Amino acid sequence: MQKQITAPAITEAMRMEFVDDQGTSTPLEAEFEFNPADPYAVHVLFKSEPVPVRWTFARDLLIEGFYEPTGDGDVHVWPCLSADGSAVVILELNSSGGEVLVQVSSRQLTGFIQQILVAVPLGTEGDLVEFDDELVELLSA
Q: Is residue 1 part of a domain?
């Protein structure tokens, strides 16, 4: 059970690029989403064919990875320069089906990160979650 949330979900469409093994990039439409009702997570919906793919990971990874390499396990995030010298943020996503590298413009991502930090400032995420209720719900499932 979660506390009453008044801030709406934040959704932002962004043009990303899939980066292949040779460093060639291919445009990819995506949508970033943050819902204050789930304050520890961000979601990225890759609007690919034939089926869109949704990734969910810790919002801290996105925020920290904007400034320095971070990540452990299935998601790694780090700042970089694109082939044309533009500032980008790389998302490395790993699953049993393989690994993919995508990049997004740092300029585009800045606005999204600023919005989610205004909605839920760092360190206040726990104020929005009733951990005891969540634990009881998890254990009763």
A: no
- Residue ranges with strand state E in the chain: 10-19, 25-34, 41-46, 53-58, 70-72, 75-81, 87-95, 98-105
92 part of a folded domain: yes
Please give the Cα distance from 1 to 3 (Å, whole number). 7
Q: What is the pLDDT of residues 45-77, one digit of tens each?
A: 999 878 899 999 999 999 999 999 999 889 999
**Is residue 118 assigned to a domain?**
yes
Kindly report, residue by residue over 17-46, the tens digit of the pLDDT: 999 888 888 999 999 999 998 999 999 999
Q: pTM of the full predicted structure?
A: 0.81
Residues spanned by the domain of 87 = 10-140
- Tell me the CATH number at 125: 2.30.31.20
Output b/e per residue, 7-20; b: 16+ Cβ within 10 A. Answer: beebeeebebbebe
Question: 53 forms bridges with which residues in the sheet?
Answer: 46
